[in-house]
Amino acid sequence: MSTKKIIAPLRREDVRILRCGDSVLLSGVVYTARDAAHVRLAELAGRGEALPFPIEGAVIYYVGPTPEKPGRVIGSAGPTTSYRMDTSTPALIALGLAGMIGKGARAPNVIKAMQEYGAVYFGAIGGAGALLSHCIESSEIVAYEDLGAEAIRKLTVRDMPLTVVIDHEGNDLYKKGRTDYLQKAQRANS
Fold first, then answer.
1. Are strands 23-32 and 152-166 parallel, antiparallel or unpaired?
2. Looking at residues 130-142, what average pLDDT do you find?
3. Catalytic residue IDs
């Protein structure tokens, strides 16, 4: 299987060609947002107010980076567990959010919104934050500076290695991988 190169913000065509299990190199603009920022974003969306960044086609990276070291634009930038954003995520997907980067499973309501509106969930390797930070070419706080590491940042990334965990049809690598493993184990034991 080849690695697909895609650019954020994502177009709907980009989302439709991605399949559960695909390897991706993502370049372009990505926004960071974690728990506290998601609460604020959901409140803005609920009031019909503009978000602090363009949401159409956007990709949000669930990360709270560490401070940058001399000569670097950002510190370690590994993914955080995604389920903490699940209550706020469907509203953002409905507004045009096209991609999310994190680690761990997603709630059924998030997967349903992904199917309905066409979004994709990417997995980044947990524990590799220092390596992932080398894919980040620029970092600028765009909202909620008072949240410190959880402020919303605009990142420019180049060739960030990701895996499509859940595609726009709801196919889930966590479930597929488990099923594939069990089938192989059964064949080996037969």
1. antiparallel
2. 92
3. 38
**Between the CA of residue 171 and those of 3, 19, 46, 105, 157, what are the distances in Å?**
18, 8, 29, 12, 26
pLDDT of residue 2: 79
Nearest alpha carbon to residue 98 among 52, 55, 142, 37? 55
For residue 42, is pLDDT > 70? yes
Exposed e or buried b for every residue in 24-51, given b needs 16+ CB within 10 A? bbbbbbbbbbbbbbbebbbeebeeeeeb
| Average pLDDT of the residues in 30-47 | 95
Determine the CATH number of domain 4-189. Answer: 3.20.130.10
Q: Is 4 exposed, middle or buried (0-12, 13-18, 19+ CB in 10 A)?
A: middle
d(CA 178, CA 25): 24
Does 117 have pLDDT greater than 80? yes
Residue 72 has pLDDT above 60, yes or no: yes
